Amino acid sequence: MRTVNIHDAKTHLSRLVELAAKGESFIIAKAGRPMVKVVALDSPAARGARRLGFMAGEIAVPEDFDRMGEAEVADLFDGDA
């Protein structure tokens, strides 16, 4: 993956945006240290961050989930220590 320093990125922003839009992602570095990764909005890398609901339909939550371990918790608060 191509790395561009921040000064060159400012100078050639239009050209770099066109390249990113065509699918060529790149990294912008400041003083040689990578700072950001630029990718097209519709690229697989941009869509890859989706995590919420990734196991939908794969697990089942029991009806009494909110009461599981109720007796043990009550013993911790009410029992003899």
Automatic annotation (TrEMBL):
Pfam families reported in the protein's UniProt record: PhdYeFM_antitox
Highest taxon of the lineage: Bacteria
Described purpose of this protein according to its UniProt entry: Antitoxin component of a type II toxin-antitoxin (TA) system.
Family note: Belongs to the phD/YefM antitoxin family.
UniProt-recorded name of the protein: Antitoxin
Source organism: Thalassobaculum fulvum
